[in-house]
Design a protein that fits this description.
The chain is of the alpha/beta class and about 475 residues long. It has three domains: about 220 residues, 3-Layer(bba) Sandwich (FAD/NAD(P)-binding domain); about 110 residues, FAD/NAD(P)-binding domain (3-Layer(bba) Sandwich), CATH 3.50.50.60; about 100 residues, FAD/NAD-linked reductase, C-terminal dimerisation domain (Enolase-like, domain 1, 2-Layer Sandwich), CATH 3.30.390.30. It has 13 helices and 22 strands. Strands 1, 2, 3, 4, 5, 6 and 17 form a seven-stranded mixed β-sheet that branches. A five-stranded parallel β-sheet has the order 8-15-9-10-11. Strand 10, helix 7 and strand 11 form a beta-alpha-beta unit. It is globular and about 70 Å long. About 45% of the residues are buried.
Length: about 475
């Protein structure tokens, strides 16, 4: 007999666990089913983001940044250190400790909010019945008034470069190298490829990134991507654009790659290969034939603007539906759906979801790029300002990058803000808030920004929209 709930959430990643907690806060009897198992072989909540994505990658990025600064950037401050070394095992162990802290934190939050965790693989059947197969082979059944599908996403595997967990790896494998690879190949110059490529480059690896597209970071604003590419080149990241890989053959401890640059074939030999060509919705085995839930041509669950599927009482959120595959987007959808189920208003504005790449320099943006505005025929004006003219950035010795503000030419409404530079992952929130409140470049320009701060670059870029920046020639 089925265990009865008001809400059953499938998936305990940033979308699912947040939806479950919010539903429980609203007085709904809630269960959350998840199949993830940690490195210790035990169930671990938090999904890809917490276990093998956002959180562990940031831990390694921070560790590698400290080591890189010690070797290359501290001398200017009068700080010197001889024979600096890094223990990769300790670094990875710190990452694992942080992951365990947060997965345990979600378990505590579930307990505090009376969310029932169920560990195993879930399949949705007709009439909102969820059948769960445990890792030990046991079977159970839940039924609910509402089911929220939050199954997340999985790395896309190339047919000629199958993951073996050691030599050819996905993002999870690249977080757990036992030593610094001499030569690391990366297929894909997206968020994962750049972040993890940066980690191992800072630690001493020779990193070559092969990107099939002709443009670098095509999703970002072209001016910002250009600045970022220049900085990455300075750091020694070898990024080859228009490089389409056709073969990856493991020979002993090496991977032999073949790629074409549009003119001829080239070969590349690396010690480890990270395949980071994107992710796809994790819908395999999620839906029984009688579930009634439909998938689109890309294997994502079809939903309306409020995350409803075509089946009454069944919702879907996060990476397994349309929109950007970002943890914070999934979390907000989870909250919105829980509140809609409870009879409250709930909405997520996909036009103001911020993007961040945690490289050095960081890259962040929200809204339209200049290219998109041109293609859509929207009249606009632009203003930019370099961090090199910001006192705080100079004091920090992090003067690379700029902030670019795009506003409507007639109404001055903020259309997009794009940044590359120090800590822009934090600075972008000001732009998001402004856009959510339908603010203008003038609003940003009129707000007092503390001095000296990095945020002054946002202030000056907004002033530059009308050619009245104070600290640069207009």
């Amino acid at each position: 007999m089925s265990e009865q709930y008001d809400v059953v959430v499938i998936g305990a990643g940033p979308a699912g666990y947040v939806a479950a907690i919010r539903a429980a806060q609203l007085g709904l009897k809630t269960a959350c089913v998840d199949a993830f198992v940690g490195k210790d072989g035990k169930p671990a909540l938090g999904g890809t983001c917490l276990n093998v994505g956002c959180i562990p990658s940031k831990a390694l990025l921070d560790s590698s940044k400290q080591f890189h600064n010690l070797q290359h950037n501290f001398a200017i401050h009068g700080i010197s250190a001889d024979n600096a070394a890094i223990d990769v095992g300790t670094m990875v162990g710190r990452k694992d400790k942080i992951v365990k802290q947060f997965t345990g934190g979600i378990t505590m939050l579930f307990k505090a909010n009376k969310v029932t965790p169920v560990h195993g693989f879930a399949t949705l059947h007709a009439n909102r019945v969820v059948k769960v197969k445990g890792h030990d082979g046991s079977e159970s059944e839940l039924s609910a008034k509402h089911v929220i599908l939050a199954a997340g996403s999985v790395p896309i595997e190339l047919p000629f470069a199958k993951f073996d967990g050691k030599t050819i790896v996905d993002n999870a494998g690249a977080l757990d190298f036992e030593s610094v690879p001499g030569r690391l190949g990366v297929i894909g110059a997206g968020v994962i490829g750049l972040e993890l490529g940066s980690v191992w480059k800072r630690l001493g690896a020779e990193v070559t990134v092969l990107e099939a597209l002709p443009d670098f970071l095509a999703a970002a604003d072209a001016d910002i991507a250009k600045v970022a590419a220049k900085e990455f080149k300075k750091q020694g990241l070898d990024i080859r654009l228009g490089a389409k890989v056709s073969k990856a053959e493991v020979k002993g401890e090496e991977v032999h790659l073949t790629y074409n640059d549009g003119k001829e074939d080239h070969s590349l030999v690396v010690d480890r290969l990270l395949v980071a060509v994107g992710r796809r919705a994790a819908t395999e085995g999620l839906l029984a034939e009688d579930s009634g839930v439909k998938l689109d041509e890309r294997g994502r669950i079809e939903v309306d603007a409020h995350c409803r599927t075509a089946v009454e009482g069944v919702w879907a959120i996060g990476d397994c539906v349309r929109g950007p595959m970002l943890a914070h987007k999934g979390s907000e959808e989870g909250i919105a759906v829980a509140e809609l189920i409870a009879g409250l208003p709930g909405h997520v504005n996909l036009d103001t979801v911020p993007w961040v790449i945690y490289t050095e320099p960081e890259i962040a943006w929200v809204g339209k790029t200049e290219k998109q505005l041109k293609e859509e025929g929207i009249p606009y004006k632009a203003g930019s300002f370099p961090f090199a003219a910001i006192g705080r950035a100079v004091a920090m010795n992090e003067t690379y990058g700029q902030v670019k503000v795009l506003a409507h030419a007639e109404t001055d409404r903020l259309l997009g803000v794009h940044m590359v530079g120090p800590v822009v992952s934090e600075l972008i929130s000001e732009a998001v808030v402004t856009m959510e409140f339908h603010g203008s470049a003038e609003d940003l320009a009129r707000i007092v920004h503390a001095h000296p701060t990095l945020s002054e670059a946002v202030h000056e870029a907004a002033l530059a929209v009308d050619k009245r920046a104070i600290h640069k020639a207009n």
